[in-house]
Amino acid sequence: MTITADHGRTYxxxxxxxxxxxxxxxxxxxxxxxxxxxxxxxxxxxxLRITPERREDPHRDRFLLSKGHGPMAxxxxxxxxxxxxxxxxxxFGAYDSPLGHHPDRxxxxxAEIGSGSLGHGLPIAVGSALGLxxxxxxxxxxxxxxxxxxxxxxSNHEAIAFAGPAGLERLHTVVVDNSSASHARPGGxxxxxxxxxxxxxxxxxxxxxxxxxxxxxxxxxxxHVVVARVEPKNA
Length: 235
Hints:
The chain is an alpha/beta fold. It has helices at residues 16-21, 30-34, 37-47, 72-80, 121-134, 154-163, 188-195, 208-215; strands at 4-5, 9-10, 62-65, 142-147, 171-177, 199-204, 224-229. It has one domain: Thiamin diphosphate (ThDP)-binding fold, Pyr/PP domains (Rossmann fold, 3-Layer(aba) Sandwich), CATH 3.40.50.970.
């Protein structure tokens, strides 16, 4: 599926490297960005119920990019889906560009939060899911994308421990695992979430069909995490 953007042109997954190549300059955090590219595409192309026209709809799904220190792939996907103009991309990181090295929810159409500091996104997602439930909005899903290194931050473990017993079944987390965490062991990411009462699936983070199946797996009464393994950051 594609969405028309930029005066009738449509963009697909194969166009994303070209869109990312428009963003130049220093401090690109290239590995952080490219590690998320396939996860972001599958979410925006096949899973998330959000379009540029529905950005203010209270019944929309919410996507929170916690891994905001590498936003190039995020900007490329938002441009491909018509949330922001493609001609914004070459200005990435410039003084007068809305596309900063960390996304700003006030400046970037479609961004739900300002992010980039490690460990903030998952607690915010828990609060978002709680807030929607308190308002009686039980249909919108909340998705948050975090990096494996963020799990070194204790704030995430508090969020994990709370969300399971709270039964936040509309809460979904994607952990992009590029082996950059300082305190980790093989298989330990999924085990941490499962110990907190979450549903957990680990998949190849480059396999679109595996990602889609994991993203849409049933998990009644529990929050859900998908651990998307990609090539090691320093490989």
